[in-house]
Amino acid sequence: MVEAVWLTLKLATVTTVLLLLLATPLAWWLARGRSPIKPVVGALVALPIVLPPTVLGFYLLIALGPESPLMALFRPLGIRTLAFTFEGLVIGSLVYSLPFAVQPLRNAFLAIGDEPLEVAATLGAGKADIFARVALPLALPGYAVAALLAFAHTIGEFGVVMMLGGGIPGETQVLSIEIYRLVESLEWDKAHQLSALLLAFGFLAALTLLLLEKRRSAPA
């Protein structure tokens, strides 16, 4: 049980850090870019919200399996498959939780508006400086929301990790799968303990999000 808790926290932490790094340029482009394919990319990013997790997990299982053309690229490195591995779970979690990181960041970048960025540009700041010194500090509340949503969403995922990870103890058996296993084996007391833990975490995460939103909407 402790092992499942640790593995879940490890997965959520790694996923959240990587998601913030990956989502930042994507969210900035979706917010400030002018490409005609933005709606298509936005729809692809949002797809995990509406797609059944088992469907997403199924295609990820194929993509990361030993017969996948994608994995053929890694065979010279001695990697035949990433299915049923922790690394595979990280990839699945990145895809599954991507919109929960991108959307808050995109909204935060949109809320900045054009004026602060244009003022910085007229003062001679380059694009990198404008982003680092103007956009990023103003978007920090969005980063807090994105990090919390990505972390909480990864903690609670089930369908993707079940399809892609299979519940291997110590490797892919995260909390949601452990609860499922306990219920199947009629170990109700242990299932109650873990479920109550996730319930408490979910409530605290939701409460924190509401408090962050209240703080953001409060008049200066």
UniProtKB/TrEMBL annotation:
Keywords annotated in UniProt: Cell inner membrane, Cell membrane, Membrane, Molybdenum, Transmembrane, Transmembrane helix, Transport
Membrane topology, from the record: Multi-pass membrane protein
Highest taxon in the source lineage: Bacteria
Gene Ontology CC terms, in alphabetical order: plasma membrane
NCBIfam families given in the database record: modB_ABC
Single GO molecular function: molybdate ion transmembrane transporter activity
Family according to the record: Belongs to the binding-protein-dependent transport system permease family. CysTW subfamily.
The protein, known as: Molybdenum transport system permease
SUPFAM superfamilies listed in its UniProt record: MetI-like
Protein function: Part of the binding-protein-dependent transport system for molybdenum; probably responsible for the translocation of the substrate across the membrane.
Domain ABC transmembrane type-1 span(s) in chain numbering: 5-209
Subcellular location: Cell inner membrane; Cell membrane
PROSITE patterns: ABC_TM1
TM helices/strands, residue ranges: 6-28, 40-62, 82-102, 134-155, 194-212
